[in-house]
Structure formats: structure tokens, C-alpha cells
Write a structure and sequence with these properties.
With about 400 residues, the chain is α/β, with parallel strands linked by helices. The N and C termini lie far apart (about 90 Å). The chain has 2 domains: about 325 residues, TIM Barrel (Alpha-Beta Barrel), CATH 3.20.20.140; about 40 residues. Helix 10 links the parallel strand 8 and strand 9. It has 15 helices and 10 strands.
């Protein structure tokens, strides 16, 4: 039997509508859920090294940049609302306290220049409330953290100076023992066997003013001393789990994860390949050596566009590790202390090698999708992405208000 044309058209319409309804009834893909989630919740990254990167080779971070892992377009694509900008003090400046403090001021000046010149893209932030307010706009908030307490120049009054300039956490040490305490990266014998007397005074002053105490990079005794001395919650702004890198003190042990959580603090898992498995550090150096040899053979200056482009191409062609590795570290910390004490501290712009799927600030959704596959709830993910560090920051502010009464 042949149906009349009108009947065929009606049947086709019914079938089309049925198909649309069926598609609408299907749950969104994990990737689509992840994309929506990072845009819907606050995403705060504990550590991005943009200031140091731009101090070496300046590019306009409000536009798409050639180098590095972070710029405004990539941050917006990845749902990033508030990356803590690392005011990093290289260890070679530690022997000159004035130069170390001047470097910190110079990097803060650079960040202020960026927010002044590109107010639609970036805004400074000195409180959790400001981060939340800025997140309602199209701008990315840029709170500041000092990486390496050597930037204080050995002067306790500089804690207040840098607080007034916008610093809201201080990573007590970096690559070498300094005046505050001992570094996990330093091969020399411990200088203080924990916090120094000056370091204890710095922690007390940080508590008084409302700066978060950051134990990333510190030795275990230094971190434990800081935790014991601090009256406010403590953070590890960019550290992963030593469980996966036995013997590597730069990552935090299970005991330290628990101790940080016991203060009410948060451990912020980093993305750098070397933090994920010990074997990944051995794969990093040959890639760098071959890349540098090519740059030298071409006669390119280190800060030339050609060298920067080639470095980025090399890094992306040789990812080390996977997004699953990063999720494993998150799982481990969550299993130990709960989702409310875990965050993200990518170390974007501060490491050479990154895992596949987390190559820059546009790719946070890849990690979120992996967490969704592992049956994390959206509430848990919202805590990890930003709510935990904002809660800790607010608690540190509250402690300061009590101290100043």
C-alpha cells in the first residue's frame, strides 16, 4: 500500500520529533558535563608562575600567547576564575636580601601593570569575597602568593609590606634552605632542622595579618613546625602525594596530608609530570637536552620567538604521564582526608613537562571529566576546584581578625 504524500510528511515529522526527544532524554556526555561544570563553579588554582615567565619573556597575557601554559583565552576556555600568581624569588637571590625583596616588588608591579592595562581581562584580588565578585564578570581574578620566603629580605616588617601589596600566602622555602627554614630540594645538611626562630616569627606575623602559610617545598620537619606554630589553617599550594613518588620529599607524605587537613587546611595537587611518578623525572631531562641542542644549533636567542615556539612544540609533542595520574593523586588524598581538604595547584608556567590532557589552562575540563568517571559528585568537584581554598582563606582572615582585636 502506498501512503499519500501528506501522510508520509506527517509520519516523517513524528519520527523527527521522536528522535529529538530521545536525544534530549539521553544524559549529557561526561565531557559536556565537565565543560559545563568548570564554567558553573569557582575554579581557583593555587599556583601559576606567570609573573616569572613574563619577567623573562614578556607577552600580552590578555591575548593568545606563544609561550607558556596560561593566558586569558585559555583560562576562559578552561573555566579558570582565580589562579594565584606566583611571586617567585629565585634561589640565587637569597644571598642578597635587598635584591630578593626588590624582585618580589618588581613582580607585583608587573601584575599591577597587567591588571591596569587589561581591566576587562584581569583584576587583582586580595580576599575570597573579591574572587567571588570578580567571578561574576568576564575578568580573571589574580590573587598573589610569594614563592620563597627569601623575598622578605630577612625583615619581619616586610611581611606587612607585602601583605599591603596584595600577597596572600607565602611559600616558606624553595630550592635551598633559607632564613625561614629548610628546603626539601636542598642536598646540603639541614640548616635549621625545621623552622628557624625568624621563620617562627614570620608564621606568627602571617597569622596576625591574614596570610596563608604554605608548606610546599619545605622539608618534613619545617612543614611540621609550621603546622604546629600556625594558629590558622595551613596549605600546600602545589604539592602532590609522596605515596606515588617514594623517597621524594618535595611531595607531601600521608602524615603531612593528614596534618594539613587537621589544621582545616588544603593540599593542592599539582600537574607537573615530575610530581606524578619518580620515573617521569628521568624522561624529562633527555627531551630538554635535545631541545636545547637544537636551539643552540640554530643560533636562536633564548628569548627569541623561534626558540619559544620550538620549546612549546617540543613540550606538546612529548607529554609525560596522563590525566589519570593526576586523578590518582587526588583519589589518594581524598581517601586519606576527604574531598574538603584537597584542591588544585597546577604549577602551570613553572614546569617543563606536563601530562597528556593537562597541557595548559584550557584543559581543566579533561581532569574534571576523569573525576566524573570516577564517580565524584559535582559537590565534591566544586570543593576541589575552588571552594576548599576559599574556605581556608576566609578562615585565615578570621584568625587575623581575632589576633588583631
Amino acid at each position: 500500500m502506498t501512503l499519500p504524500t501528506s501522510s508520509l510528511m506527517a509520519l516523517s515529522l513524528v519520527l523527527v520529533l521522536a528522535g529529538v526527544q530521545a536525544a534530549q532524554a539521553q544524559p549529557a556526555s561526561v565531557e559536556a558535563r565537565a565543560d559545563s561544570l568548570v564554567q558553573a563553579v569557582l575554579l581557583v588554582d593555587g599556583h601559576v608562575d606567570l609573573p616569572h615567565r613574563l619577567n623573562d619573556i614578556y607577552e600580552n597575557p590578555a591575548a593568545t600567547t606563544v609561550g607558556g601554559d596560561f593566558d586569558y583565552p585559555r583560562a576562559r576556555a578552561g573555566g579558570l576564575d582565580a589562579p594565584f600568581m606566583s611571586v617567585y624569588i629565585p634561589t640565587y637571590l637569597q644571598s642578597n636580601p635587598t635584591a630578593a625583596a626588590n624582585r618580589a616588588d618588581a613582580l607585583i608591579n608587573l601584575m599591577e601593570k597587567i591588571t591596569t592595562e587589561h581591566p576587562d581581562a584581569f583584576s587583582g584580588a586580595t580576599s575570597p569575597d573579591e574572587v567571588r565578585r570578580i567571578a561574576e564578570t568576564e575578568a580573571v581574578a589574580l590573587p598573589l602568593g610569594m614563592e620563597n620566603g627569601a623575598g622578605l629580605g630577612g625583615e619581619i616588617d616586610n611581611v606587612k609590606h607585602f601583605y599591603d601589596r596584595g600577597i596572600r600566602y607565602i611559600t616558606l622555602t624553595h630550592g635551598m634552605h633559607n632564613r625561614l627554614g629548610d628546603s626539601s630540594y636542598d642536598d646540603a645538611e639541614p640548616r635549621w632542622n625545621g623552622l628557624s626562630p625568624f621563620g617562627e616569627n614570620v608564621v606568627a606575623e602571617m597569622n596576625r595579618l591574614g596570610l596563608m602559610v604554605d608548606v610546599s617545598h619545605a622539608t618534613d620537619p619545617t612543614a611540621m613546625d609550621a603546622i604546629e606554630q600556625s594558629e590558622a589553617p595551613v596549605i600546600a599550594s602545589h604539592s602532590s602525594c609522596r605515596h606515588f613518588t617514594p623517597g621524594w620529599e618535595r611531595n607531601v607524605s600521608d602524615e603531612l596530608i593528614q596534618e594539613v587537613a587537621d589544621t582545616g587546611g588544603v593540599v593542592m595537587i599539582t600537574f607537573g609530570s615530575s610530581f606524578l611518578q619518580n620515573e617521569y623525572r628521568d624522561r624529562d631531562a633527555p627531551i630538554r637536552d635535545e631541545m636545547q641542542a637544537h636551539i643552540d644549533s640554530m643560533g636562536w636567542a633564548e628569548d627569541s620567538r623561534e626558540a619559544v615556539v620550538y620549546e612549546q612544540e617540543t613540550r606538546r609533542a612529548h607529554p609525560i604521564g596522563t590525566v589519570q595520574d593526576v586523578a590518582d593523586h587526588i583519589d589518594h588524598a581524598v581517601d586519606l582526608v576527604g574531598a574538603e581538604h584537597v584542591g588544585l595547584g597546577s604549577d602551570f608556567d613553572g614546569v617543563f613537562a606536563l601530562p597528556e590532557g593537562l597541557q595548559d589552562a584550557s584543559e581543566y575540563p579533561t581532569l574534571v571529566a576523569e573525576l566524573l568517571r570516577r564517580n565524584y559528585t559535582e559537590d565534591d568537584i566544586a570543593q576541589i576546584l575552588g571552594e576548599n581554598i576559599l574556605r581556608v582563606w576566609a578562615a585565615v582572615e578570621a584568625t587575623a581578625e581575632t589576633r588583631q582585636e
